[in-house]
Design goal:
The chain is mainly α. The chain contains 22 helices and no strands.
């Protein structure tokens, strides 16, 4: 009953937001849909998301193949750690890292000036957006695909080695089926994340010409107070999000857990000289792309004195409070939903629907709708903190459910009949049957939800102000004011906090890539 109540509550919140948008969207008509403004927004959003997805996969898949073939080389564990770090970095920290390397005052700009070339503002626009998105999503794609390649049956590689298959034959027979199985869902998810990207486009877009739907909703609400236009844009983005989430759900094909997963056999093509050379090239290029931005974040250690500002301490406390509250809310809701879905004979309808609904509803769509509904009864300042916590918890909920639901289902399948015979129910069933299997995934869920909330800029950018600042918002303001030393210190602090939570999540079980 509690799980069903949570599912109903989630759908009620979404429905209230949509009703608020529908009431405010007085200008949502055919003329508006066919306007040049909408066409430009859709074109910019689609082009940057499609290009980001293609580039992320183009780097991530070869990198995963090279790592799968080269299981032992100096620095492999370090490279895997850097991939994990890049995956969990907040968007605004990635923006700082890109500017620190490719900006006018960054490594590339300094090198160009030393060569007598004056660097222009090429970074702010589509190039900067693509670099940031690829830096964030290519490591994510590589980790997902590496796990998929490592799940191939060891006997298949042993047989390929005995048959003396060429590198091309190994790819076509063993690797291509994995790519064909995993890439549709992975591409749909990366496209959805890039299409709804906010912090990256806001900071690196370079102006209205590169605005996306998410940024346009923010500008309509925050800058123009045009609720009708924000509602129309939100409804349009919701429709697109439903289509993209449906594509992700349709392409998602889960394979059964195999006993050898994570313990791959030596690949049949690892000793082919041409592939060895190719792997060296791929690993070198990937390292050159990923390592310098991460090192630029680490360079913030030289500016740690800037963190003594009282405003920074207040932002740290606010960020941690929001993150912990959102993590508790998301993990508790995920556990209740998973318990409701794992009862004997009950299909996991609630779990799937909640996960896909939250993937389809962008954060600003929820914010815009709830803001329209609550504005007559609450002022912006008072609704800010609970709105930030609620929306961040809802956005983390699909990932948390994907972490806690499989072990609960497995526990119920193994021991559910015995528990029924013993009359275990309610809290006793949870404590004796499910909690041993749930302890580690719940810890991972809590850490993941906290890290996602800690790095969020979107919701707090709307409600933030002098009395409500988080670390991402403070970092965005320092970047905008060209206070690079303070921005470097804030980026390092935020990255360390998020990375610490990510390590806790990995200890608890799966990482963000496995949850997605």
């Amino acid at each position: 009953m509690a799980g069903t109540a949570v599912a109903v509550l989630v759908f009620v919140v979404v429905a209230v937001a949509l009703v608020g948008l529908a009431q405010a969207g007085g200008r949502f008509d055919i003329a508006f849909l066919t306007s040049v403004y909408i066409g430009r927004l859709l074109a910019v959003s689609t082009v940057q998301a499609a290009a980001s997805t293609v580039l992320s996969l183009a780097l991530g898949i070869p990198l995963a193949l090279s790592l799968a073939r080269r299981t032992a080389f100096p620095g492999r564990r370090l490279l895997l750690g850097l991939l994990a770090t890049a995956t969990v970095l907040p968007g605004i920290v990635v923006v700082f890292a890109v500017v620190a390397v490719y900006g006018r005052s960054g490594l590339v700009g300094t090198a160009l000036r030393a060569a007598g070339i004056e660097p222009g503002g090429w970074l702010y626009g589509l190039p900067g957006i693509l670099i940031a998105h690829v830096l964030l999503n290519a490591p994510f794609c590589a980790r997902v695909m590496l796990r998929a390649f490592e799940s191939t049956e060891p006997e298949a590689h042993r047989l390929a080695a005995q048959l003396g298959l060429t590198g091309r034959a190994v790819f076509l027979c063993l690797d291509w089926p994995v790519i064909r199985r995993e890439v549709p869902a992975l591409a749909a998810l990366v496209f959805l994340l890039c299409f709804t990207s906010f912090a990256t486009v806001l900071a690196l877009g370079g102006g209205p010409d590169r605005a996306t739907l998410e940024v346009a909703i923010y500008e309509a609400l925050r800058l123009d107070a045009d609720f009708a236009r924000a509602a129309s844009l939100s409804i349009l983005q919701l429709a697109i999000g439903v289509v993209l989430a449906g594509a992700y759900a349709a392409g998602l094909r889960r394979t059964r857990e195999l006993p050898f997963a994570g313990r791959p056999a030596p690949r049949a093509d690892r000793e082919i000289p041409a592939l060895r050379t190719l792997d060296v090239v791929v690993l070198s290029l990937a390292s050159l792309f990923i390592v310098p931005p991460l090192l630029s974040v680490a360079a913030g250690a030289t500016s740690l004195a800037a963190l003594r500002d009282p405003e920074v301490a207040q932002a740290v406390v606010t960020s941690l409070a929001f993150a912990l509250a959102a993590a508790v809310l998301a993990t508790g809701a995920a556990v209740l939903l998973a318990l409701a879905a794992t009862g004997r004979g009950r299909p996991p309808v609630a779990v799937g629907l909640v996960a896909y609904v939250q993937l389809a509803v962008p954060p600003f769509t929820l914010v815009a709708g709830l803001f329209v509904v609550l504005r007559p009864v609450l002022d912006t300042a008072s609704m800010g903190p609970p709105m930030v916590v609620l929306v961040n918890a809802l956005m983390a909920l699909p990932f948390c459910v994907r972490l806690v639901e499989p072990p609960l289902r497995q526990s119920e399948e193994r021991h559910g009949r015995v528990a029924d015979m013993l009359g275990l129910a309610g809290l006793a069933r949870l404590r004796l049957l499910h909690w041993p299997a749930l302890r580690a995934p719940a810890l991972a869920s809590f850490a993941m939800a906290a890290s996602l909330s800690l790095g969020d800029l979107g919701v707090v950018a709307f409600f933030g102000g002098p009395d409500l600042k988080t670390l991402p918002l403070l970092l965005y303001e320092r970047l905008g004011a060209y206070r690079t030393d303070e921005a470097a210190a804030l980026a390092l602090l935020l990255a360390l906090l998020v990375f610490g939570l990510a390590l806790l999540a990995i200890r608890g079980g799966e990482a963000r890539a496995d949850a997605a």
